[in-house]
Specification:
The complex is a heterodimer of chains A (117) and B (140). With 117 residues, chain A is of the alpha/beta class. Helix content of chain A is 39%, strand content 31%. The chains are: A alpha/beta (117), B alpha+beta (140). The interface between A and B is medium-sized, with 25 and 27 residues.
């Protein structure tokens, strides 16, 4: 009965990838998100954009997973950006102060460009 | 047809991440019935979800279920998430650190930001915790 979430990823170039989260990210399905991020890194993608444009809901467990992802990307010498969060999800970043830690861009194109994808 | 809004709703959910959604969707449905705005419905869902997640993560195996109680009156929607676990220190809210993937306390920070009132009661002798959240209804 995990919360409906569609996780998809694609390599967009040498060492770069987009991870898209569509639906609801909550404590019940964050392991799936974490696993997808780890796999991208193990596939050599160290410049990562997480596309939240289709993310309708996210809780602090989802934020924790993104923090873990950012940590691993930085350890690998890469960069990570958040793309297109809807207003409610963006507000969660602001409430928690994580908008100061993550690079957040309005759209996927800009985010991809900024991380060097 | 105007639906009758109940004055109290109680749920007992298993101590499992899978059931947090049940509680927050119930909160959302009730908030919708009470004619909160869409943003407020989202906030109420998120706050209840965070409180339930907190309970699921802090209670031990001796606490198989979590009680979620919603009470409605003319002024407010009151939401209580009650467990019989060992309790926790609501003042222990570590700062977010990118080096530390565990960001305990973030849930309470979110609830505090979204709700009009937040009270955390922990009974250190008998065990258990109650997170009580209040969202005021707009005056008509």
């Amino acid at each position: 009965m995990a919360t409906p979430l569609r996780v998809s990823s694609r390599l967009t170039g040498e060492g770069s990838a987009v991870l898209s989260l569509a639906g609801e990210v909550d404590v019940s399905n964050t392991p799936e998100v974490r696993e997808a991020g780890v796999k991208l890194l193990s596939d050599g993608a160290t410049r990562l954009v997480v596309d939240l444009s289709q993310t309708e809901y996210m809780d602090s467990a989802g934020l924790g997973t993104l923090i873990g992802m950012l940590k691993r990307v930085k350890e690998a010498g890469g960069a990570m950006a958040i793309a297109g969060p809807q207003s409610q999800v963006r507000r969660l970043f602001e409430i928690t102060g994580l908008d100061q830690i993550f690079a957040i861009y309005e759209d996927l194109g800009t985010a991809t460009k900024e991380v060097g994808g | 047809m105007n639906a009758v809004v109940p004055s109290q709703v109680e749920l007992r959910i298993p101590r499992s991440c899978e059931f947090v959604r049940v509680a927050r969707k119930t909160a959302g449905a009730l908030a919708h019935q009470l004619q909160f705005t869409l943003h407020e419905v989202y906030d109420i869902e998120l706050a209840v979800g965070e409180a339930c997640t907190n309970a699921v993560e802090h209670v031990g195996e001796q606490c198989p279920e979590i009680l979620v109680r919603f009470s409605v009156d003319e002024q407010a929607l009151v939401m209580e998430v009650i467990d019989r676990g060992p309790g926790f220190d609501p003042e222990h809210t570590p700062a977010v650190n990118v080096q530390d993937e565990t960001i305990g306390g973030l849930g309470l920070l979110v609830i505090r930001s979204l709700m009009d009132e937040l009270e955390v009661k922990c009974d250190s002798s008998a065990g258990g915790a109650c997170v009580r959240m209040v969202k005021y209804r707009k005056r008509q």
